[in-house]
Amino acid sequence: MNLYTQDSNINKTKDTVVTIGTFDGVHLGHQKILDHVLQLADKKNSRSFVITFEPHPRLVVSKNYDLKLLTTLDEKVKVFEKIGIDNLMVIKFTKDFSDQSSEEFVQNYICNKIGANHIVVGYDHKFGKNRDGDENKLRELGKQMDFDVTKVAPITFGDTIISSTKIRNLLLEGDITFANKFLGRTYTLSGKVVSGAGRGRSLGFPTANIEVENKYKLIPGNGVYAVSVWLNEEKYAGIMNIGLRPTFNQTPNVIIEVHILNFNKNIYNENLRIEFLERLRAEKKFLSRDKLIQQINIDKNNAVKIVNSYVETE
User: pTM of the entire structure?
Assistant: First the structure.
């Protein structure tokens, strides 16, 4: 996949099918849009082209909006590439950029810089200053600038429309199962192993404390999770605890720590990628150290079964 910024020199050609969006999570609804792009590109013997933005526009235009991201830019790039997108342009989203009208954006960034015979958008896509651009505006511009427009309907699960907001709420509630279903893959986060209090080691279950690399990355709700842990392309089973350690002296800040099963290496300062498989239970305060150890052993056995079941279905 070719990766561009707004300042890159791009070979302009009309033989291009374009889609535009933030695509946080690149969930099933987004994947349906991307699938349409790929199908049209194949049908029209054209290249596929995604335009996205960094940082997330809400972080720029809504300063007090407490946004947490489902995917970092690096994660999005990897998903786009895996899906099979030919070209990706990442536009640096600034206040000045946000002041462009939808017509200026289409003219400057699509027609003049990339070229397009078709633009594909989601059912609720809005763009341009004051979000004045939508499907109808695009169709109007398409008649002037000679491109077709396709609007893609949402994907629903029961009565629920799959959206980034819905997935964020599911993760904050600890509902990993449905979040993963809506994403179409396991939710992940990455971070560096940092020193901790050594509490897990004193219990016989050493843990790696994770410092998440992106401050805007969404951390699932407090609880204990069955996870897969990736270290230098090696995959391990693990149990992750997210919370305040209520059994001991409760911490003021949420701690993210993972116990890697059948593992005994010094991995301080190493980077780990965590895949969330299932939530095992809520975080709780135990009456004694022994009760906590007993529960961790139960969690460990349950995590092994879950991780193995995922391996069998891969």
Answer: 0.93
